[in-house]
Design brief:
The chain is of the alpha/beta class. The chain has one domain: 3-Layer(aba) Sandwich (Peroxisomal Thiolase, Chain A, domain 1), CATH 3.40.47. A four-stranded mixed sheet has the order 2-1-3-6, with helices on both faces. Strands 7-10-9-8 form a four-stranded mixed sheet, with helices on both faces. A hairpin with a 2-residue loop joins strand 4 and strand 5. Helix 3 packs across helix 12. It is globular. The mean pLDDT is 96.
Length: 341
């Protein structure tokens, strides 16, 4: 019998439905199965996959259905903003009145100060995401943008403007995982590496606010498990909730030196034909960011790339893909590496 793992962050806050897993099981026609909700803030989808993966890999389960889901549009934006802020430190960040966007804006401003980048230098991350989303029928924002659009978009929390940030939205995605040896025929996609790590939940408590330590630790462990390194990764679905997070993820995972993640965007290395393609189906920025579902979407999109199903944004000869799902401002980070068998 299939077992169900549901990644979700805010059902109890926005929908007043904490006991979500049996509800999903019921409506999916799986009434009676073992079902559990997994919450790791915006990293819930990746954490749900990791939970299901460990259960199947241990031999305890024969299979697992992993569902990521979030419903965010039935409440006023102020309520959604407050709910998202629960991913931060309640006592020392949220209590001070700062929003989640505000916290990230502080990181971005410091990054620009330390390394000398201008706001316009972040534009390639947003432009690439929107250009790729045009070719993804499941993406939310089907329109390209220009550098001028990026620079003139409305300010949210200086220096983060509207086009630096991913949109909220509703969404769901699902994965079915089984032992590799049970797959007969077709293209097998193997989970070659799976790792998670944590950092302090409050940004001010970190040794270095401009380095995603949990991304580094989880990526290094996933690389070790998969027997690969950054140079072997053909496609990287990173957690681009904000443009600054794209740069920090690329640096923490070994694709760029400290302070030089921006350069990959400016040089075109992140495009589908570049050295390390990212957000090839639109990413959080343009596919959308229904937080509990995002980590599952990322895995689905890596699988699509490895199976050659991505049309005009297909990465040629992609065989190894990586997905990284971030909870909070870097407090929980889950990294998966997949290989085409």
């Amino acid at each position: 019998m299939c077992h169900l793992f549901v990644g979700n962050m805010m059902s109890g806050i926005l929908d007043l439905q904490n006991n979500l897993a049996p509800l999903v099981a019921d409506f999916a026609g799986l009434r009676g199965v073992d079902a559990v909700k997994v919450d790791a803030a915006c990293g819930s989808g990746g954490a749900a996959l990791r939970s299901g993966l460990m259960a199947v890999a241990s031999g305890e389960l024969e299979s697992a259905l992993v569902v990521g889901v979030e419903k965010m549009t039935d409440r006023h934006p102020h309520e959604v903003t407050a709910a998202l802020a629960t991913a931060a430190d309640a006592d020392y960040e949220v209590e001070m009145g700062v929003s989640f966007v505000g916290l990230t804006a502080l990181i971005m401003r410091r990054y620009m100060h330390e390394y000398g980048w201008k706001h316009a230098d972040f534009a390639p991350f947003a432009l690439n995401a929107h250009a790729n989303a045009v070719h993804n029928p499941f993406a939310r924002l089907h329109h390209k943008i220009t550098v001028e659009d990026f620079e003139k978009s409305a300010m949210i929390a200086t220096p983060i403007n509207l086009l630096d940030a991913s949109p909220i939205g509703d969404g769901a995605a699902a994965l079915y995982i089984v032992p590799a040896e049970s797959v007969r025929g077709g293209t097998r996609i193997l989970v070659a590496g799976s790792a998670a790590a944590t950092d302090t939940i409050a940004i001010h408590s970190r040794a270095d606010a401009l380095f995603l330590t949990a991304a580094y630790k989880s990526a290094q462990e996933a690389y070790k498990q998969a027997g690969v390194g950054p140079k072997d990764i053909d496609v990287f679905e990173l957690h681009d909730a904000f443009t600054i997070m794209s740069a920090l993820s690329l640096e923490a995972c070994g694709f760029a030196e400290r302070g030089q993640g921006i350069r990959l965007g400016l040089d075109g290395d992140i495009l589908p034909g570049g050295r390390i393609p990212v957000t090839t189906r639109g990413g959080l920025k343009a596919r959308g960011h229904p937080v509990g579902a995002t980590g599952v979407y990322q895995i689905v999109e890596v699988v699509q790339q490895l199976r050659g199903e991505c049309g005009q944004t297909q990465v040629l000869e992609a065989r190894i893909g990586m997905a990284q799902n971030i909870g909070g401002s870097g407090a929980t980070i889950v990294t998966h590496i997949l290989k085409k068998d």
